[in-house]
Amino acid sequence: MKKNVRKEYLAKRKQFTTTEINAWSLKIADIFLNSEFTQHQTFHVFLSMPKFNEVNTQYIIDELLRQGKDVVVPKMDGKQLLSCPYTNETKLVKNSWGIMEPESNQEVSPDKIDVVIVPMLISDAKGNRIGYGGGFYDRFLSSLDEKTKFVGVNFFESVKEDIPREEFDVLLDYLITPNDIYKFDK
């Protein structure tokens, strides 16, 4: 089922125009930046892949940096994700998957991360999410402190049907869409 749902939402997202993506991404950024999350200091934020019509997280990153927050971004290391410091001067390179990531292997300790903005395709009303299927974020999220908040950002509202959950899947704490912020009960 996950494979079919993944395929369905990739296809739906592919239909969005750049104008829609930018407008909705700005709304998501506005909701995030006007929430309780900005009380925290260290944020792990994925770098968007325009070819997949993802939420453009650069709006969030730019404002967090302007506010003097610490931003870290993912870098693939085998099947793991490292959290590497990010500033406006960070040199980015394309990895073997075509994803931009820091050239440096400098890593921020996972226990320093307060909030993770998680990439996703869709979630259900319980906080189960479907990503791209590699398990990178589930492995990464499971390595973090209980205090860390997991925030999915998505153009779609949660689906009503339960998404099948496997033992290694990690639940989201929150979902932000262009319309609102939703808290999941764990």
From TrEMBL:
Cofactor or coenzyme needed: Mg(2+)
GO function term, MF aspect, one: metal ion binding
Family designation: Belongs to the 5-formyltetrahydrofolate cyclo-ligase family.
Residues holding substrate: 47, 54
Matching NCBIfam families: MTHFS_bact (TIGR02727)
Enzyme Commission number(s) from the entry: 6.3.3.2
Superkingdom, taxonomy of origin: Bacteria
A biological-process GO annotation: folic acid-containing compound biosynthetic process
Lineage, top ranks: Bacteria, Pseudomonadati, Bacteroidota, Flavobacteriia, Flavobacteriales
Protein name, entry field: 5-formyltetrahydrofolate cyclo-ligase
Binding site for ATP: 2-6, 129-137
